[in-house]
Specification:
By secondary structure, the chain is mainly beta. The chain has helices at 3-18, 100-104; strands spanning 27-34, 46-52, 58-65, 69-75, 78-83, 93-99, 113-117, 123-128, 133-138, 143-148, 153-159, 164-170, 173-180, 187-195, 200-206, 211-216, 222-226, 240-245, 250-256, 264-266, 271-274, 279-281, 286-288, 297-299, 302-308, 314-320, 326-331, 338-346, 352-353, 365-366, 377-384, 388-395, 401-410, 413-420, 427-435, 438-446. Strand 22 and strand 23 (286-288) form a beta hairpin. The radius of gyration is 22 Å and the shape is globular.
């Protein structure tokens, strides 16, 4: 038999075995908060939106949430929705907890566990230390709330100051941004560091005004997005990124970025894409051109942008975070805004993970590409539990190699690699990951 035909047959057999379970493949999901909510109505006025990126299915309202839902977090195969309450004084505060499998399987009525949070706290973010313990930041209260996820109870608090917003765990420490003095509404410039072993404040780190989201770069340094002032009275109105070394808790770099950003996506090349579209090199802290689309959210090598159609409805556009190429578009069902877009990978065994997780992978894994079918670009994701010599290649139906996407040694971690089928015809293709002794092949469909 011709060697090329033999290779094609082997690729087909390997891919067929790896996908022989049909629907028992990992699913790429996206959840969002639809609508801003009401500051005066304590009833849930927002909706949880579900999008299956693997199939294109959209369910615009799977549950009522709110009254003012801030963020969605993922842990223990569940969604945790942080509700800040109404009336600007933190009434009707809660966590809403929903099993992801129940949403995917369209269970009706959808079971929702609600954990009440005392009035006056105005919870903002939820940061997990592990499966059983998490921290809730509070904008109006002078404490951080400790949440026991094993029994869904509030188990303690850490005294700090009001005005808390986002948080991040690194080196067994909790970093919390304080964006504003809650009493004067003047932007603050502080990141608090909490010792998670004893739940006490270790120190305060001075950054630029109005710190918001905190994200790690590929070197483990923390990038604090500082929105700055919204008036031209100060140079700090431009917005900054402050970089913290978590080993020393010292600010090791600052970059003026402009445009009052509030969040950042850091791709696998180490390029930061801010919510206002500004791009920068996270290693050198140098600006990069061209900018990305403004209003960008995302994780890893995928950007999510919600745009308004001529008819007033919203459309979700996925972009490659490395090349800025458009990957796919999905029509949404409402004229309302979509917030806190949260991607989730759901394995066939029901285990859910999100790219926001900072835990080290425990096994080799090659994910199904998404979107699939695709035209002309798609994303291939994989995980490495240990440093490995990695080869990621694409073959056509005859077993001919058409692209080498990765070739070289990579550290342990999660990776997302874009593939653009420029010059290729429609049809089935195979992609094969080899990392040390681990080898896996999957198939994908190009439809032009």
């Amino acid at each position: 038999m011709n060697k090329r035909l033999l290779l094609a047959a082997c690729l087909w057999l390997i891919a067929a075995v790896s996908t022989s379970w049909g629907q028992a493949q990992p699913q790429r999901l996206l959840f969002a908060i639809r609508g801003f909510g009401s500051s005066t109505n304590p009833a849930p006025t927002q909706a949880l939106t579900f999008i299956n990126l693997s199939t294109g299915e959209v369910r615009d309202s799977v549950a009522a949430i709110g009254p003012i839902a801030n963020v969605i977090r993922v842990r223990n195969n569940r969604l945790y929705i942080v509700n800040s309450g109404a009336n600007f004084n933190g009434t009707a505060n809660s966590l809403q907890i929903i099993n992801i499998a129940d949403i995917v399987n369209n269970v009706n009525p959808l079971p929702i566990t609600t954990v009440r949070i005392p009035d006056g706290r105005n919870p903002y973010d939820l940061i997990f230390l592990n499966d059983n313990k998490a921290y809730i930041t509070n904008f109006l209260d002078s404490t951080i709330t400790i949440f026991n996820a094993a029994n869904n109870t509030l188990s303690g608090s850490i005294r700090i100051v009001p005005g808390q917003q986002n948080g991040f765990i690194a080196n067994n420490k909790l970093y919390v941004s304080r964006s504003v003095n809650q009493r004067t509404f003047v932007p603050d410039s502080t990141v608090f560091v909490i010792n998670t072993a004893v739940d006490t404040v270790l120190r305060q780190i001075r950054v630029r005004p109005n710190p918001q989201e905190i994200k790690p770069d590929l070197q483990g340094r923390l990038h604090v997005v500082c929105t700055g002032f919204f008036s031209a009275r100060s140079p700090d109105s431009l917005g900054f990124v402050s970089v913290i070394n978590p080993a020393t808790d010292q600010v090791v770099g600052t970059l003026a970025v402009g445009g009052n950003p509030s969040g950042v996506v850091i791709n696998s090349q180490g390029i930061g894409i801010l919510s206002n579209g500004t791009r920068y090199n996270t290693s050198t802290l140098a600006l990069v051109t061209p900018p990305a689309v403004g209003g960008t959210l995302g994780f890893g090598d995928t950007l999510f942008v919600v745009r308004t159609t001529p008819g007033g409805n919203r459309r979700l556009v996925l972009f490659n975070a490395r090349t800025l190429d458009s990957l796919t578009q999905i029509q949404l069902g409402s004229t309302q805004p979509y917030l806190s877009l949260t991607p989730v990978t759901l394995r066939p065994d029901g285990v859910a993970s999100t790219e926001r997780s900072t835990e080290r992978p425990t096994r080799f894994e090659l994910a199904q590409n998404y979107p699939n079918p695709f035209n002309p670009s798609t994303i291939i994701a994989y995980t490495l539990p240990v440093a490995s010599e990695v080869s990621l290649k694409v073959f056509d139906i005859l077993g001919r190699e058409v692209a080498t996407l990765v070739s070289g040694r990579q550290a342990a971690g999660r990776y997302q690699v874009p593939f653009t089928a420029t010059g290729l015809s429609s049809g089935m293709y195979f992609y094969r990951l080899q990392a040390g002794s681990f080898v896996e092949t999957k198939k994908m469909m190009l439809v032009k």
